[in-house]
Amino acid sequence: MPHGYTNDTRGDGASVVKRYLGSDASARQNRERTMLERLRGVLPVASIIPDAPDAVYVTSQLTPSGEGCSLRMSHLEGVHGQELIDAGLAGAVLRSCGATLRQLQSIPLSLAAPDVDHLSGTVLVHGDYGPNNMLFDPRTVVVTGLLDWEWAHVGGSIEDLAWCEWIVRMHHPGHVDALHKLFEAYGDQPPWWARRAAMVRRCQEMVDVFRSLGDAGDMAAELRRQRVRVTEGWSE
User: Is 1 inside any structural domain?
Assistant: First the structure.
């Protein structure tokens, strides 16, 4: 399926099979499975198809061990957020992103992460939040799917907000002027220095993810290093 960068995701219109690549594939698969189970009925997330056992399979060169695991999920209707931005609906998409993020962060951590110690001010963090991992009704631009929970964790509220902004600035620079819709719907706009710092931290984390793959991830890691430098140079 298009728009995937870290894993191999394929769908047939009825279900989607996501094959996790990398040395920590099993941990990321387990995290996504857990979040989908906990958030079903709370947010628009896919359901796990239980009669399809996880599979060990031979993957691409991105998996040093040559093995990985997969998860079969229900197909969600909707149009990918980045496609709608490219179609001229950036403002409406970012408004929905902001409102949905506020909803996500209002979920009690006792439900989303009952087995994690919670610090004051922490919330559920998606970890790769933005139009790149969201599906929308193309008529109403209401969110119909929030995808890819493999990076979910408990953290600061600025993390997902800043990353959503990063996605727009990096991949849709012609629509930066629509970012105010994101902040208006979210209900807050942290200072620029704090948002950019959060973006840089996440970019560096992705460098470390691909660097852990050894030779197979060198090119991907270098691309992420370049993005760290670009992000550091941004001004509001």
Answer: no
